[in-house]
Amino acid sequence: MARINENYLKLPGSYLFSEVGKRRRAYIEAHPDAEVISLGIGDVTLPLTPSAVAALHRGADEMGRAETFRGYGPEQGYMFLREAVAGTDFAARGIGVEPDEIFISDGAKSDTGNIGDIFDAANKVAVCDPVYPVYVDTNAMAGRAGNYDSATGRWDRLIYIPGTEANGFVPGAPDLYGESAPDMIYLCFPNNPTGTVADRAGLKAWVDYALRIGAVLLFDAAYEAYITDPDIPHSIYEIPGADECAIEFRSFSKNAGFTGLRCSYTVVPKKLKVGGVSLNSLWNRRHSTKFNGTPYIVQLAAASVYSPEGREQTAALVGAYLENAGIIRRGLEEAGYKVWGGINSPYVWLKTADGMSSWDFFDYLLTELNIVGTPGSGFGPAGEGYFRLTGFGSRENTLRAVERIRNGRI
Ligand code: MLT
To answer: How many other C-beta atoms can be found within 10 angstroms of the C-beta atom of residue 105?
Structure first.
């Protein structure tokens, strides 16, 4: 008789963004005239750049001619894209990443979720709290999180490293060694959801900690394009020793607007070994077995991001979202809110008004101001009492939302 993976039964409710979407749809159905502004999920709103669109057309034309048609591509991605990534995202910053350490994929969400495949189910996992829920839920599915306690909002086998006002929502390495030390540590900078960034010293402390305890850092850099401060590292590999303890995830979603097109990459350095086994070889085996490659035309579009005009056009997209984040940040501050992020990140993290719970504040914004955001508690127990807004809306909607918040009415 077939048996299911019972870990799925332990998952609470639905995935955070599905729940936010469900409540938004229910409100709109009940109030069809309401002009609801969505600043919840971090989905882009500006169209693809002209250079990406031209690349898609070129790729489609090639696929329609017998002499240029392509079937299965290399699962790890075409060399033209892996070389562009190695040269522009890494070599240009003085970081040595080889094309065969880069695995092209269909999203950082997929890869941060799937990376657990190459790790033992008994590994102890540490996450920052609040945290992008994919890291937690996928480890729960794999049986690494233990059991969920709805009273505390915590999984009993996960190690939570709280981000708080006291540490500026940039948690440092915990004081855990020996038996209690984590084996896998998820980090995300610029951070989703808090929009905060870790500086060089902060990242070095994490790398030193991981090397000392033999843990692997799973570093999500999906938002690195939003870093404006020249002193903030864009890659974990800017830190010496990181190539022996860290895997890095990047995405074309938030810089080039590929949320609907799907392309990302994961760097697994060849020097990174666990128990003498190369994680690059393991991930290569996993990736080529379970994945048949990102579509050729999508990879062409991703490569166009690295052309001179592509870089300029992509920078303009990022600049527009950063400006939105700045508008939200300043508007909230003027309205008396305490805020974080929104400077090196498209996300603005705020303390709810009048000590409201995150979901009460969600309801208040939705019903009173017709604005959808994301409740901080959905990102983990330390997010309770906080809330996330995104700069990914249109400029018009961003301005309208800020006006509503300032006035306290629609
Ligand atoms: C978010 O809103 O946190 C992101 O859009 C989710 C994602 O990138 O999967």
So the answer is: 25
- CB of 262 closer than 6 angstroms to any ligand 1 atom: no
Give the position of tokens 């929104």. 342
Q: Running DSSP on this structure, what letter comes out for residue 49?
A: P
Domain extent, residue 326, equals 11-47+309-407
Distance in angstroms (rounded) separating the CA atoms of residues 247 and 51: 30
Is the same domain home to 290 and 353? Answer: no
* Structure tokens belonging to residue 250: 């990047």
**Cβ neighbours of 47 (radius 10 Å):** 10
Q: Which two tokens stand for residue 1?
A: 């008789």
Query: Has this prediction a pTM greater than 0.90?
Result: yes
CA distance 150 to 169: 23
| Residue of 15, 19, 41, 109 best suited for mutating to test ligand 1, as the one with most atoms within 8 Å of CB | 41
CB 94 within 8 A of CB 68: no
- Total structural domains in the chain? 2
pLDDT of 147-193, one tens digit each?
999 999 999 999 999 999 999 999 999 999 999 999 999 999 999 99
**Domain match, 240 and 280 both:** yes
Taking the C-alpha atoms of residue 401 and residue 68, their distance in angstroms, rounded to an integer, is: 48
Distance CA 214, CA 224 (A): 26
Give the atom of ligand 1 at the shortest distance from the alpha carbon of 253.
8
Q: Tens digit of pLDDT for each residue in 39-90?
A: 999 999 999 999 999 999 999 999 999 999 999 999 999 999 999 999 999 9
